[in-house]
Amino acid sequence: MYQLKVDNTDALNSALRAQMVEFNAQHFDAQRVPLGYKFTDEQGELVAGISGCVFGNWLMISWLWCSDSARGKGLADKLLTELEQVAIELGATTAQLDTLDFQAKPFYEKRGYSVKHQLNNYPRSGTRYFMEKPL
């Protein structure tokens, strides 16, 4: 008989993700190709980075972060441009990401991304934007 147990761990999340990826792979004709770039300072510390993957003809951007000390220096733009260019070389025709109202929506809009969907009151009083851009 099955037992219901509480498990609020990262390990459970990782196991569930692995199971879903395996299940979904049976229904997709594409593999995820991970991509990531970073800038480091003289001490090797991370100051900005971007990660995502190409999945079929989609560039799926997961994270773009820039430290306070590195903001306004064009690093985020360089990271995004590089990720998009490599994704195009790998066959991506559209990029997608999500961002919150206090994050980088204007940054992405200046670079050709448009809102396709938004969740209001997320998680309570903010807005989450789902954005796309043709590559």
Overall tally of domains: 1
Strand content: 35-45%
Task: State the share of residues found in helices, binned by percent.
Answer: 25-40%
Large-scale geometry:
globular
CATH architecture: 3-Layer(aba) Sandwich
Span of the ends, CA to CA: 51 Å
CATH topology: Aminopeptidase
Level-1 CATH class name: Alpha Beta
Q: Structural class of the helices, strands and pairings?
A: alpha+beta
Q: Mean of the pLDDT scores?
A: 97
Order of helices and strands: HEEEHEHEE
Mind explaining what this structure looks like?
The protein is α+β, with helices and mostly antiparallel strands. It has one domain (31-134): Gcn5-related N-acetyltransferase (GNAT) (Aminopeptidase, 3-Layer(aba) Sandwich). Helices cover 27% and strands 37% of the residues. It is built from three helices and six strands, in the order αβββαβαββ. Strands 1-2-3-4-6-5 form a six-stranded mixed β-sheet. A hairpin with a 5-residue loop joins strand 1 (32-40) and strand 2 (46-55). The longest helix has 16 residues, at 10-25. The radius of gyration is 17 Å and the shape is globular. It starts with 9 loop residues before the first helix and ends with a strand. 19% of the residues are buried.
Report a brief summary of the structure.
With 135 residues, the protein is of the alpha+beta class. It is built from 3 helices and 6 strands; from the N terminus they run αβββαβαββ.
